[in-house]
Amino acid sequence: MILPIVAYGDPVLKKKGSDISKEYPKLDELLENMFETMYNASGVGLAAPQIGLPIRLFLVDTSPFAEDEDYSEEERLQLENFKKVFINAKIISEEGETWPFTEGCLSIPDIREDVFRQPKIKVTYCDENFEEHTEEFEGLIARVIQHEYDHIEGELFTDKLSSLKKRLLKGKLSNISKGKIRVDYKMRFPNQKKRR
């Protein structure tokens, strides 16, 4: 089932998510719905707060990036095959010199800005079967994870922009929160029950 994506301005996007247990109700169904929602909106990641749930859960599928000619064959193969569920994730370390990349967000449609992040991360998390992992990720995969991880920490990519950039975007962000935007996927706007 395709779920509405929560728009900028909703308080759930600023809440730090809570850990969940393997007894979380209908987790398999939730994951299935989240993947369906993400693909429907042409996203490469989706976090639970973006569908209104303040829990530490997000998923990533970087395969759309594999079509980009800028990457080597090896990088494209990695991107094409990277699909994961992250439950109760914790970034243990971030390393390397920060690098810019233009990011966007399904909760903040039509805004894309350069965000600086470190290229290498180490993360502990549980997968969909609640098996624990500690892994290192680099490059674009690390960035997508960092972006989604921010969501479960109550942060948005716009929080990482300079105060000048934030001022310049204020009107656009205000329009998004008021529902004054056209998107081709279901969204839920603050102070509105349902709207396409």
What does this structure look like?
The chain has helices spanning 27-40, 73-80, 139-152, 163-177; strands at residues 5-6, 45-47, 57-61, 83-95, 99-105, 108-117, 120-126, 132-138, 187-188. The chain has 196 residues and is α+β, with helices and mostly antiparallel strands. The strands form three sheets. A five-stranded antiparallel sheet has the order 2-3-4-7-8, with helices on both faces. Strand 7 (120-126) and strand 8 form a beta hairpin. It starts with a strand and ends in an 8-residue tail after the last strand.
In short:
The chain is an alpha+beta fold and about 200 residues long. It is built from 4 helices and 9 strands; from the N terminus they run βαββαβββββααβ. The protein is about 25% helix and about 30% strand.
Helix share, percent: 25-40%
Straight-line distance between termini: 15 Å
**Chain-averaged pLDDT:** 95
Report strand order across the widest sheet.
Answer: 2-3-4-7-8
Indicate the overall shape. Answer: globular
Main beta-sheet strand count, sense and barrel state: 5 strands, antiparallel
Q: What's the total number of strands?
A: 9
Order of helices and strands: EHEEHEEEEEHHE
State the helix count.
Answer: 4
In the predicted model, the low-confidence regions spanning at least 5 consecutive residues are none
Q: Bin the strand percentage.
A: 25-35%
Radius of gyration: 16 Å
What class, by secondary structure content? alpha+beta
